[in-house]
Amino acid sequence: MTSAQPDPKTGIVTREEEPGGSMTFFEHLTELRKRIINSLISIVIGSFVGFYLSGYFVEFITKPMARALADAHLDPKLIYTHPAGFLNLLLTLGIYIGIVLASPYVLYQIWLFVAPALYKHERSAVTGFLFSTVALFLLGIAFGYFVALPRVLHFLVGFQGMSIPFMHGIQPGTVVPMISINEYFDVILLILMGLGVVFEMPVLVFFLSLFGIVTPKFLMKNFRYAILVISVIAAIVTPTPDATTMLIFMAPMVGLYFLSVGVSAVVVRKRERRLNQPAEAR
């Protein structure tokens, strides 16, 4: 590990090795393997717990669909078309719940692998890193479940009852939805997990700023390109063609981008303040 120290002749700040901080390439590989194994073990344990809890989550995740069907005056029931369909759903749901449960420990393992490349004061941010990452991911899932998902489902279920020119030849009641719970799970997985990952934008920008890859000036200068990328991501995550729903997905992403600019500004300001301090104050 290194720390910032000025060269006695030139006064240029350089990094000196801290005891025990340097590792060979093979030591890095060994450390990486250790962190991966620990993470996989935690996910396996979490998946067993998740499978035990999956029955409770099935009722929770099917409520938005049942509500959308009832609002469209349809039978609020979901079906499965394969004998093992429901069991497969429980197993898959258990794995995803296990990943979420194990995520704090997995993130901690990632931090332990990355930490040797950081300064001591940067390594002290582990608590904030873990809390922010998990909190933002859960906030993204909550936004998807309570805001985005109901809007998407009501649009998709109510589409067969809309007055659309090319559907005038279809008699009411001729085409009705029979929603497979497995296919429904694929849709909500795309929406909820996609938004959960998207909400991690400030954490990603934090690390990019920490290593000097991006700056607030760079982010603001390339805002137009960021909006383009956000639009593409919203179009992928949004399973409906209407612009209103897409804007609902885009709004938090734009807000997160500006939050990321603020995070980058704080990181860059602290780094510059540290480098401008006298050597004895570091």
Overall description:
Helices cover 70% and strands 4% of the residues. It is mainly α and 282 residues long. The chain has 2 domains: 24-160 and 177-192, no CATH class; 200-282, no CATH class. It has a two-stranded antiparallel ribbon with strand order 1-2. A hairpin with a 6-residue loop joins strand 1 (2-6) and strand 2 (13-17). Helix 1 (25-71) runs antiparallel to helix 2 (85-114) and helix 2 (85-114) runs antiparallel to helix 4. The two termini are 16 Å apart.
Layout of helices and strands:
Elements: E1 2-6, E2 13-17, H1 25-71, H2 85-114, H3 120-123, H4 126-158, H5 181-198, H6 201-210, H7 216-221, H8 223-237, H9 243-275
Antiparallel strand pairs: 1-2
Helix pairs in contact: 1-2, 1-4, 2-4, 4-5, 6-9, 8-9
Shape estimate: flat
Biggest beta sheet attributes: 2 strands, antiparallel
Strand composition percent: under 5%
- Percent range for helical residues? 55-70%
**What's the total helix number?**
9
Instruction: Quote the average pLDDT.
Output: 80
| Strand numbers in spatial order across the main sheet | 1-2
Helix-strand string: EEHHHHHHHHH
Low-confidence stretches: 9-20
Class inferred from helices and paired strands? mainly alpha
Number of domains: 2
End-to-end Cα distance, whole Å, is 16 Å
Number of strands: 2
Q: Radius of gyration, rounded?
A: 24 Å
